[in-house]
UniProtKB/TrEMBL annotation:
Membrane topology: Multi-pass membrane protein
Segments crossing the lipid bilayer: 40-59, 66-86, 92-113, 125-147, 153-176, 188-205, 211-234, 246-264, 284-304, 316-338, 344-364, 385-405, 417-440
PANTHER family: BLR6921 PROTEIN, MAJOR FACILITATOR SUPERFAMILY MULTIDRUG TRANSPORTER MFSC
Main location: membrane
UniProt name for this protein: Multidrug transporter subunit MdtD
Gene name as annotated: mdtD
Pfam families according to UniProt: MFS_1 (PF07690)
Length: 461
């Protein structure tokens, strides 16, 4: 069963990064501009953010095996549709189907492990299935670049089909169909309010640049998003068993960590989208070479895991998060120095430094958010964190795409304006990240971690 869940983790994390290096090739094939391809990434991550809150209840109601099998089926079907997409709009719709399946693979697989193994074996079991989840982002950009260059971009989706079919067959044989009896009714009203809030916010940010909305439409979408979020707060305060109880926000570390995750990731979450696009569109890198350039980011990130633990144990969450957030933002802004004349011996260390400080950021943000949760609040808090992480990924790419389009138009709109537009976007996204450090300043000065909790299986993008 562990291998089955590990395959699901691998498919989901691989597909979150494998697309980025193929975007320029997709654009040429579909007759689109490479700077307008962010919708391919947004559709997947935003769909995951919307579906994740319902995944736990579905597994409790219909059984982990049933839901996990359905998730693999949807993921494979979405992959096939993506591979044969004739237009950008069709591809975006197929990514939505793929995102519905991907949203259930991670939480339902983790839940199945939790209900199968006793508490004393749970940590080891989840550590095992988390390893393929870390390998996916490591090889995703390079594999995506190689497949795009050697075959075609369609194969970055077709490789999911045999893996998914084997996973579906193994699920039938090895995964128990664990259910919970007597579960309450799903909070459909709260779920719909949160879904409307997330969708309206994302569409409003992409409205002017990507979707061509008028200013009035964007304003109405922003108002609708705020209204839906406010309505959810009133609804959750009145309901006995809301989707996400508001009492979680009485835990100070959770509130600060969740908001910090949202706004800090809007900045640094844009980098896996921006870096391969810059290398290919402005510097003339091939898809495979652009994918190889992402290896220093992921390798340095994995190597710095223990460093993050030591830093937090010695200096506390507040000092580490405030200072590291500033450093992440400054390193992001430093990518504005990228030019065709920049030597590799300077570019590769810059990528590695970004991977290191970004990994420290993710580790610290995730642990400070979850460290004070217990009992029933741990499950709801973890689901809310997963939802916010995927939402912030969507908002990050949406914001970066909107800024790219705006700066390119302001700098002249021709090919010569592309690299300055990337430079300005890197600076803006870095400043957004630096500004989010103010959120972490709200942590207590005595917020230390003498024994840092280890959260295995958390997805880091």
């Amino acid at each position: 069963m562990l291998w089955v869940v590990a395959v699901g983790f691998f498919m989901q994390t691989l597909d979150s990064t494998i697309v980025n290096t193929a975007l320029p090739s997709m654009a040429r094939s579909l007759g689109e501009s490479p700077l307008r391809m962010q919708s391919v990434v947004i559709a997947y991550s935003l769909t995951m953010a919307v579906i994740i809150p319902a995944s736990g209840w579905l597994a409790d109601r219909f059984g982990t095996r049933t839901v996990f099998q359905a998730a693999i089926g949807l993921f494979v079907a979405g992959s096939l549709l993506c591979a044969y997409a004739p237009t950008l709009n069709f591809l975006v719709g197929a990514r939505v189907v793929q995102g519905v399946g991907g949203a259930m693979l991670l939480p339902v697989g983790r839940l199945s492990v939790l209900r199968t193994f006793p508490r004393e074996q749970y940590l080891q079991a989840l550590s095992f299935v988390a390893i393929p989840g870390m390998i996916g982002p490591l090889i995703g950009p390079t594999l995506g670049g190689w497949l795009t260059q050697a075959l075609s971009w369609h194969w970055i989706f077709l490789i999911n089909v045999p893996v998914g079919l084997l996973g579906a067959l193994a699920t039938v044989r090895y995964m128990p169909n664990a259910k919970l009896s007597g579960i309450g009714r799903f909070d459909i009203a709260g779920y719909l309010l949160l879904a409307v809030a997330m969708l309206a916010l994302s569409f409003s940010l992409d409205g002017l640049a990507g979707l061509g909305f008028q200013h009035a439409t964007v304003l109405l979408l922003l108002i609708a998003s705020m209204a839906a979020l406010t309505a959810y707060g009133l609804h959750a305060n009145r309901r006995k068993q809301p989707l996400f109880p508001l009492r979680l926000f009485r835990i100070h570390s959770f509130s600060v960590g969740l908001l910090g995750n949202l706004f800090a990731r809007i900045g640094n979450g844009s980098m896996p989208f921006l870096i391969p696009l810059t290398l290919q569109v402005s510097l003339g890198y091939s898809p495979f070479d652009a994918g190889l350039m992402m290896l220093p980011v992921t390798a340095a990130g994995m190597a710095s895991k223990r460093l993050a633990t030591r830093l937090i144990q010695h200096h506390g969450y507040r000092r580490v998060l405030v200072s590291n957030t500033f450093v992440v933002g400054l390193v992001m802004a430093a990518f504005a120095l990228i030019t065709p004349q920049l030597p590799l011996w300077l570019l590769i260390p810059l990528l590695a430094v970004f991977g290191m400080v970004n990994s420290i950021q993710f580790t610290a943000m995730n642990t400070v958010t979850l460290k004070d949760l217990s009992g029933a609040g741990a499950s709801s808090g973890n689901s809310m964190l997963s939802m916010v992480q995927m939402l912030s990924m969507s908002l990050a790419v949406t914001s970066a795409g909107a800024l790219l389009a705006t700066f390119q138009h302001r700098f002249g709109g021709d090919t010569a304006a592309v690299l300055p537009a990337f430079h300005a976007t890197f600076v803006c996204m870095g400043l957004i990240t630096c500004a989010s450090a103010w959120i972490f300043m709200q942590l207590g000065r005595q917020e230390v971690a003498p024994a840092l909790p280890v959260r295995h299986g958390e997805k880091e993008v």
